[in-house]
Amino acid sequence: MSDELQQFSMGTWVVGLAVVTAFIGVFVGIASGRKAMTAPSPRQRYLWLSWGALSIGGIGAWLPHYIAMVGFEVAGSTLRYNVLWIAISFAVPVFAAGLALLIVSPPPSKHRRPTTSVEISRLSGAAVILGVGLAGMHLAIVSSLVVQGSVGFDPVLTAAAAGLGLGVGAAIMWSISVLDSRTLRLVAALVVASALVAMHYTGVFGLSVTVDPAAPRPDGLEVFSILFPVFVLGMLAVTIPITALLMAPDRVAAELELEADMLAAESLAAESRGRELELR
C-alpha cells in the first residue's frame, strides 16, 4: 500500500459497521438458502433463492465492501467511483450467489424430493462459483476507483483476497447444506462476515496509487452518493426475508406435526375398520 493511501481516515468504527452489515446479509442469506432446499413449491423455492442471492451477494458481500471504502482516501487527489464498474461490482456477486444457490438446491422432481442432504459435487461447484464471484466483485470495485493518476495492485495480496473469497464461498455453501442449528448458523455467519471484511482489506492494502497533480479532476460519484441510498434500501429490503423467516414454521416442528397428523389419520382408519368388523 502506497503512502498516498489512507484506509481509516474516518476511524476504525467503519470496520465494525462493515462486519455487522455483512453478518446480517450472510445470516439471512444462509437461512433463505435453507428454506429454498425444503420449499414445497417451485414458487416458494425461487422466492427464497432470490432473497438468498440478494442477501448474500448484495447485502452480505457488496455493501460491506463499499462501507469499508468510507475511510479510503488518496492524498493529493480527488477520489471518485465509476458508475458502470459499481453496477458490475454489484451484479457479479448477486448473480454468482443465485447460481450457486441453484446448484446446491436443485429443483425437486418425481425422482428427487426436497431435502437438506449434502451432495459433495454440488457443494463444491457452488462454492467455487460463489468464490469466483466474490473475487470478481473485488476486482470490479478496484476498477471503479478513479483518481488523478493511476491505480495499481499487488498481485500477491490480490491473490490472497481471491483465496479468502473462495474460502468464504465454501463456508457459506457448507453452512446452507450442513448446519441445522440456528445457533451454529449464527456463529458461521459471524465468522464469514469477518472473513469478507478481511478479504476487502487484504485486497485494498495491496493497492498503490501514482498521483499526477496535472491530471484533470476525475468524473464519477462520491462514496456517500453510492453508500447512503443503497444502505437504506438494503436494510429496508432485508426486513422482508427476516419477517418471512420469523413467520415461517420451523422445519422440524412442521415435520413432527405432519407425522402426528399421519399417525392420527392411521389411528382413525384402524378404528373405523374395527367398527366395521364388529358390525359384521
UniProtKB/TrEMBL annotation:
Q: Does the keyword Coiled coil apply?
A: no
Q: Where is the MHYT domain?
A: 10-210
Entry keywords, A to Z: Membrane, Transmembrane, Transmembrane helix
What InterPro entries does the entry give? Answer: MHYT_dom
Q: Name one Pfam family in it.
A: MHYT
Q: Which residues cross the membrane?
A: 12-33, 45-63, 83-104, 125-147, 159-179, 186-211, 223-248
Q: What is this protein called?
A: MHYT domain-containing protein
Which species does the entry assign this protein to? Rhodococcus tibetensis
